[in-house]
Amino acid sequence: MTTSALGLALSWPRPCLLVEADPTGGSGILAGYFHGDVAHTGGLMDLALAHREGTLAEAIARATMPIPHTGVQFLPGIRGHWQARSMVPVWEPLSGALQALERNGQDVIVDAGRLGLAGCPEPLIYAADLALLVTRSNLPSLSGARSWAQTLRSGFEQGGALSSLGVLLVGGGEPYGSREVSKVLQIPVTASLPIDLDGASVFSRGAGPPRRFESSALVRGLRAAASAIQSVVNTNRASLGETSDVRSQV
User: Any idea what the CATH number is for the domain that residue 115 is in?
Assistant: First the structure.
């Protein structure tokens, strides 16, 4: 999930903010993509403190860091799972603050981590223009995703926003394709990414890019996924009579 979220952010056509909201704690991006060379300070916990002081919206820019040579700002997550409960009262107001960033031309991608953990950022998920359930296409993965797909469908249906829920399929056709996965989960597959361990290591471990990386199936898949996400969000907004620019959360 984190690898997919970072890959999408780095492939995104507009400036974006990547929010690491995984309640597990311990930044996979700082430890992996940044090789542990950047200290894990601030981030979401700075926002928790700012929320108590009534300055949440103003604190977002100060709590983020740029990813060099990209248009991506990064908001690191919590240091450990013990901090997750401190974020529970922050998720709802943070959702509104993130939505406001769109007016400044900045899209938002959220890595919500594994579902069902204490401190899960549910308000961010259900406020998203498009929430994507990330799964592989094999039977064990689909078996685990099936119950959560039902839970998410129920939640989005209650909010009248079922079209804001989709699947990001990793390894489509290995063995099941988008049509079969969509039928099992009863959620449309918005986009599919190939399994490319060498390419994925660029995002997960900060590895040097393999030969012809920019033209690889993974990079092409990420760009196609970004385009598909924007298309779904635009369609949803058009159906609501909205004309503002795209802001996506994953």
Answer: 3.40.50.300
